[in-house]
Amino acid sequence: MFGSLSEWILHWGLRSNTVTDPDGASIRQEHIELTVIPEWDSLSEDIWDYIFQRVDEYDFDAISRTCKLFLSLTDRSRTMLTIFDQTVAVGILRRCRNIKRINVHRRMRGDPNLLLHDISTSGVAIEALHLSSQEFPSSSVREAGEGTLGRTLKILICKSIRWPLMDKDLFAISEAFPALEELEIDWGHYVTDAGIEALASKLAHLRKINVSWCCRVSDASLSALSSDCASLSEVHLPHCGSLSGDGIASFIAQKPKLVSFSVIIYDFPGFAGGKSLQCLHINSSFLSDDNLHSIAESRLPLRELCLPFCHGFSLTGLDMLLQAYPSLSRVDFTWFDILTDESMALLASHLREVTTIDLSYCSKLSKLTFMCLVKCCPLLEELQMEGLVLVGVVPSVLLLCETAKSTP
């Protein structure tokens, strides 16, 4: 029965029309149109609930205005919420009891501390909280941990926080949210090893941690994460420049289940271990051909190789590295000044399984590289070449693709 619902119960479509405002200007309006059969009110709530579970939540606002039944059902089916105004959050959470993920808009009106209080006292089992460009709600974190949020929150993302985080903020997070599995923070200029060690000791279920711009974090933090977080599989420490090569090597060797690792390397450690490593991201580091050879010889199960802003190696070393990993699905060679159209024509033969390539700000590349990659990489879905300068008549992307595919 359910298999034919889309044929006779519900019809969706994006409709647009042009209207004229009082000043005579033309305005294009778009809206979602819902059409139901005349007997729609005879359908049970279970059937409508089944339908709405398969509708994109971004369309719920339009659906909810149709009737009270649809408002009730969309409230019940909603699992994600973006908050633009702190003052209305209480009312929404009172209606929508199945919300699992909350995104706080970067331009939210209101007090982040009051918002966290409202969320924690709502009784809704929130599993993911994304704070973007907000002041970190330091004064309400510990209180929030005493409510439902302290037991249910698994993902906490604090990006572009207005003021740099400090150790006391990490102490509060570790005490309030012991069930966290994923934690992402940036602008931690004042965070030290003490803050990371507190997280490691309290967050026993941590699987992923992303800590950026924490310049005071050293090998002691890696040691704490290695010894206390048994489930840890993704570690991202970009722009944390106080880590040593020996500390990184020891960490990788002690975490055989490590899947993804991002770091800046000042003295290359080699990769003894890391037999589960699928994503390697080394940023802004000096890498010699010997270093690349070490990565190649490690025979890691790499699917992603990201080396943005790295330097010190030759085309021969890069070619050798790519030969060792023909199954890569993503590469990032941002700001590789050694790359030319001729060299990319040679390297492209090793990138046949790549779906995403970033060649931004590679100043010696032209549309010839674009055409070469379109032709040689049959699985390619995303190609970034920011900063590419095209001289003369600029052809459209579609024309370049057609030209590349038709060239023998």
UniProtKB/TrEMBL annotation:
InterPro entries the UniProt entry points to: F-box-like_dom_sf, Leu-rich_rpt, Leu-rich_rpt_Cys-con_subtyp, LRR_dom_sf
GO CC terms of this entry:
SCF ubiquitin ligase complex
Task: Report any one BP term from Gene Ontology.
Answer: SCF-dependent proteasomal ubiquitin-dependent protein catabolic process
Tell me what this protein is called: Uncharacterized protein
